[in-house]
Amino acid sequence: MAAMNEPLGIGEPGERDAAPAGPGLAWLPLLTAIALTLGITIYPHVLTGADGRADHLATMLAMWAMSAGFVRGTGFVPRNRALRIALSGWACLAALVLAGIRLLG
User: Fold this and answer.
1) Measured between alpha carbons, how far is 73 from 76 in angstroms, rounded to an integer?
2) What is the pTM of this model?
3) Which one, of 34, 74, 84, 40, lies nearest residue 60 by Cα?
4) Is 48 exposed, middle or buried (0-12, 13-18, 19+ CB in 10 A)?
């Protein structure tokens, strides 16, 4: 039987006190998200079509890229598989490319 002052659990004493190492900052998605935030705030007309009306699909894609960039860039990785895919660095890139194609096309 374990003594009263020994920690319960598996591993060496003090091992369970350490926080698990996370993925850390991902600078490229984070900088992309910051650039999108500043760009859209300073010049919101970039998300309009040739006729001057708001392009809702391009705006949605840009906001998705921005959200995915902030989530992945700060090092947060969701446990839910669908959210982990939708908010990944690759999703940030894909949404940014699709928004660019929509606006330029």
Assistant:
1) 7
2) 0.77
3) 40
4) middle
Where are the domains positioned within the chain? 25-104
Strand partners, 48: 54
pLDDT digits (tens, 9 = 90+) for 22-70: 788 999 999 999 999 999 999 999 999 888 899 999 999 999 999 999 9
CA–CA separation, 15 and 86 (whole Å): 33
Alpha-helix runs per DSSP H in the chain: 27-42, 56-73, 81-86, 89-104
For residue 44, what is the DSSP state? Answer: G
* pLDDT for res 50: 82
Give 21's DSSP letter.
Answer: P
